[in-house]
Amino acid sequence: METRKILLYWSLKFLGDWNQIYEALAQKLEPDEEEAEELFKNVQSDYITFMDEEYPECLKRVFKPPFVLYYHGDISLISDNRNKLAVVGSRKCSEYGAKCTHDFVKELCKDFVIVSGLAYGVDGIAHKTAIDNKGRTVAVLGNGINICYPKENEELYEECKKKHLVISEYPDITPPCPLKFPIRNRIIAGLCPTCLIPEGRIASGTQVTAFLVMRNNGNLCCIPTKIGENSICNYLISEGAYLVETPDDVYEASRVVKKKPIFEN
């Protein structure tokens, strides 16, 4: 069996669990050919493996890079030659956080593929704003590729599947669980050299992503908020993250040149 099929087999058998896949590979266990045939027949998405040309180099450098990525949509959106911007934050964002997310993404989606986690709050607003403004967006799931979680974002999920990109290291209908979402965040941080946090809480999934970006030597951009808000943004700014007040600040931090309108004099 070719290597990419071996990776797919163990990924399907262990529902994307990185540690179990690694152990099977390290022990050089032989796939069961009959079981493999049945598992392969039930794959209802596209996929790329660590061995494939389309697999982005930036992901190969993350801690525990996914052996297989299942996807629906345009896989070129995560290629290394794309400018990708992670936008993550609070699931229960304030009106201020929602407005900042909308206003920043509306401008930044002209030059960046917007990458987020399809969660409530900042994530959903980032995806929707990019779509509404003719940008491109990538949803990175913390559950099986064929499950939309939360269900309230089903319309966004379907839109991303058809015209943008949905990816997951978990196959088919692997159910969501709380532990999978922080693990998922390493993919978001690995894909994007720059991360924007419009609003977030200390001791949250947003903080996990922020620390992963910092460990990757990425550009962490935070919008400040008022004191007394348990704000991860203010804390990260005090630790050296970029304080950003306009989309232009994100361009400067990421060193991406802003495109000029075609008809500008």
Average pLDDT: 95
Whole-number radius of gyration?
19 Å
Shape verdict: elongated
| Helix-strand sequence | HHHEHEEHEHEHEHEHEHEH
The number of helices is 11
Give the CATH architecture of the largest domain: 3-Layer(aba) Sandwich
Task: Please give the largest β-sheet.
Answer: 9 strands, mixed
Structural class by SSE content: alpha/beta
Reading side by side through the largest sheet, how are the strands ordered? 1-2-6-5-4-3-7-8-9
Write a structural description:
The protein has helices spanning 3-13, 18-26, 33-41, 57-60, 95-108, 122-132, 154-163, 180-191, 205-215, 232-238, 247-254, and strands spanning 46-49, 68-73, 84-87, 113-116, 137-140, 165-168, 194-197, 219-222, 242-243. The chain is of the alpha/beta class. The protein folds into two domains: 3-76, no CATH class; 81-163 and 183-254, Rossmann fold, CATH 3.40.50. Strand 3, helix 5 (95-108) and strand 4 form a beta-alpha-beta unit. Helix 5 runs parallel beside helix 6 (122-132) and helix 8 runs parallel beside helix 9 (205-215). The model has no long low-confidence stretch (mean pLDDT 95).
